[in-house]
Structures are given as structure tokens and as C-alpha cells.
Design a protein that fits this description.
CATH class: Mainly Beta
Radius of gyration: 18 Å
Low-confidence stretches: 1-19, 21-49
Strand content: over 45%
Order of helices and strands: HHEEEEEEEEEEEEEEEEEEEEEEE
Distance between the termini: 31 Å
Helix content: 10-25%
Structural class: mainly beta
Number of helices: 2
CATH superfamily: Jelly Rolls
Number of domains: 1
Mean pLDDT: 86
Strand order of the largest sheet: 1-2-21-18-23-16-14-15
Oligomer: single chain
CATH topology: Jelly Rolls
Length: 295
């Protein structure tokens, strides 16, 4: 796929749509899939086999190897939810959590200037440095240990490039559907204190501008922690009524409410008020995303 077509379908084609338009788009794709059902019921939108999705009562398990895959040479990306050429009707979103991409961008490469609107976009780098420029005049480098948020609101143009010429940059890019549309675009970035994540969770995102971490236009909370083997934690949801919890293992292994998870496995739970978490290895790192389940 040409770079321009990829950017249009993956970024403008989703971020510029309203929720009603997104749902209509999904219905249209479902009709297209039904036309191909007689050919092979297991084929996805790209005519490639969709990974199986484990959906049990009040839980969603997405194993690391079962995520959508896209390798464009300069970009190697894994998609927990449907994105660009990857379409899986069982994995459109987790509540308002619309996109969770695990991106590796080659040295010196990146996303050219492109638009977003009405989306909360969170970037969390793990290795390397990411250079950000936008139409508000922001020019920043986002490093490992930082968290960046951009409220696209009425519309914003930005670019993201690997600032390193000798190594890839690796990061999560997360999109959350906002609870307010057409807000004034804004940018924020913070550096985290690693000591606050030793064998405990640190809040890195909330709905409150005066609270710890960055904030977004949504009733959501993100927490990040790094744990030694055998450490157990009870984690309570801030807004259990209507919210669910999606956990992503960054490194190591964990057991959450009895479910074994390894590096880059994702596990969603809803209709719960708290979860029991146990680390299975030293230096295990976990990202928790509490989000409303209704769009």
C-alpha cells in the first residue's frame, strides 16, 4: 500500500468520523464480509485469516501473537483493535478505547503531517525518542519515561518521526473516544518518576486536569507499574459503574483474576469493581486502562 493511502485509511479515515459514522462504516464492512462468507468464513477483510478472539463472561483476552499485524518496512505495528487494513469484527474497540497500537518505527522514519479530530491520543514511548510537531506550534521530543497526550478536538495536523538515526523508536499509541466533541485542540507532555512505580501503580492519566498525570476529555484512568516476582496487588476501579479495565503487559508476566498473561498480552474485564494482580517475573511492567464501556 502506498504511504499516502495508508495514512488516509488509518488516520484520517477513522479520526475524522463521528461515532455514528464509525458504526455505519462497521455495518458496511460487515455486509462486505457476508458476501465473502461462502468463500471462507474465517477470512478477514484483507482475505487473511483473522486470529481467534477469546471472549468469555465479562472478559476479553487478546494474546500478543493474535493481534493484527502490519509491516510497512519503516513501520512495524501490532494492533489490538481493528485499524487501517486490519479488520476484525470481534475487536472493534473496548468501550471508548478505540486504538491500542504497538508501533516500532525505523531510524529516521516516521509519520508525515496528517490530520486528526475529535479523538484523545496518548503516546507512551518505551525505547528511543519520538519527535512531534503540530499545527499549534508544538515541537517536542517524547522519550522513554514520558507520557504525551493530544486532544484533537476541532482539528489538528501533526507529524511524528523517530528522532534517532541509529535505532528504532518503540511506543504505544492509544486512541480514546472523547466525551466532548469539538473542543479546542491541546497538547501536554509529562515525565514520570520511576520510583513511584516500584511494586505499585502510578496514575499517569485521569479526567481531572488537577490530578496526577496527564488528563483527557473522558471518564478514564491509566495506571503504570513495575513489579518484582510474586508481588500481589488489589486494584480498585475508580468508577466501577459503567467502566471496564483493559490491562496490557508491557514486559514480563502477570496473573489477573486467575488469567495468566505474558508480554504484550491484553486482557479486558468489565462488570467488576476490583481485580487481583500478581507479578510472575522480576521487572514485570503493566499498563492498566480504565475506560467507560459505552460509546
Amino acid at each position: 500500500m502506498k504511504r499516502s493511502k495508508f495514512l488516509k485509511s488509518s488516520i484520517l479515515g477513522l479520526a475524522s468520523l463521528s461515532l455514528m459514522e464509525l458504526k455505519a462504516q462497521a455495518r458496511g464492512v460487515n455486509k462486505d464480509l457476508k458476501r465473502h462468507k461462502a468463500l471462507d468464513p474465517d477470512l478477514g477483510f484483507n482475505h487473511l485469516p483473522n486470529p481467534k478472539t477469546s471472549i468469555m463472561k465479562n472478559t476479553l483476552l487478546i494474546k500478543a501473537d493474535d493481534r493484527g499485524k502490519a509491516n510497512h518496512g519503516w513501520l512495524d505495528s501490532k494492533h489490538s483493535f481493528s485499524f487501517a487494513n486490519y479488520y476484525n469484527p470481534d475487536r472493534m474497540n473496548f468501550g471508548v478505547l478505540r486504538v491500542l497500537n504497538d508501533d516500532h518505527v525505523a531510524a529516521g522514519a516516521g509519520f508525515g503531517t496528517h490530520p486528526h479530530e475529535n479523538m484523545e491520543i496518548i503516546t507512551i514511548p518505551f525505547e528511543g525518542d519520538l519527535e512531534h510537531k503540530d499545527s499549534m506550534g508544538t515541537q517536542e521530543q517524547i522519550k522513554s519515561g514520558d507520557v504525551q497526550v493530544m486532544s484533537a478536538g476541532t482539528g489538528i495536523y501533526h507529524s511524528e518521526y523517530n528522532a534517532n538515526k541509529d535505532r528504532p523508536v518503540k511506543f504505544f499509541q492509544i486512541w480514546v473516544v472523547p466525551n466532548k466533541r469539538n473542543v479546542e485542540p491541546r497538547y501536554d507532555q509529562i515525565s514520570l518518576d520511576p520510583s513511584k512505580m516500584d511494586n505499585r501503580f502510578m496514575q499517569i492519566l485521569s479526567p481531572n486536569a488537577n490530578d496526577e498525570g496527564v488528563w483527557i476529555h473522558q471518564n478514564a484512568w491509566f495506571d503504570l507499574g513495575k513489579f518484582e516476582s510474586g508481588k500481589k496487588v488489589q486494584h480498585k476501579l475508580r468508577s466501577a459503574k459503567g467502566n471496564g479495565l483493559f490491562a496490557m503487559v508491557i514486559d514480563g508476566s502477570f496473573t489477573i483474576n486467575g488469567q495468566q498473561l505474558n508480554k504484550r498480552d491484553g486482557f479486558g474485564l468489565w462488570d467488576i469493581s476490583e481485580v487481583e494482580i500478581e507479578s510472575g517475573a522480576d521487572h514485570s511492567q503493566l499498563l492498566l486502562m480504565e475506560v467507560p464501556m459505552q460509546l
